[in-house]
Design goal:
Layout (H helix, E strand, L loop, with lengths): L14 H7 L5 H8 L20 H15 L2
């Protein structure tokens, strides 16, 4: 839908929808949620949130992902 449509944005996203497309939690919790993905994919990309965040915040999240999953 359009970002300017009535009801668009966080209030329009149910918890179930968010849990389908977002993985959040501790590194161990995220690893557990990612395990089933390997049954269907040989690769995937973890992307930090970026909308409405300062570039420094996005970089910080990216570094945290790298530390948690690729170090």
């Amino acid at each position: 839908g359009r970002p300017d449509a009535p009801g668009a944005g966080p209030p329009a996203v149910s918890d179930e929808m968010a849990e389908t497309f977002v993985i959040a939690g501790t590194a161990d919790e995220c690893r557990r949620r990612l395990e089933p993905v390997w049954e269907a994919a040989d690769s995937f990309m973890l992307v930090p949130p970026f909308q409405a965040l300062a570039p420094e915040q996005v970089m910080g999240y990216g570094i945290a992902l790298a530390d948690a999953f690729w170090s």
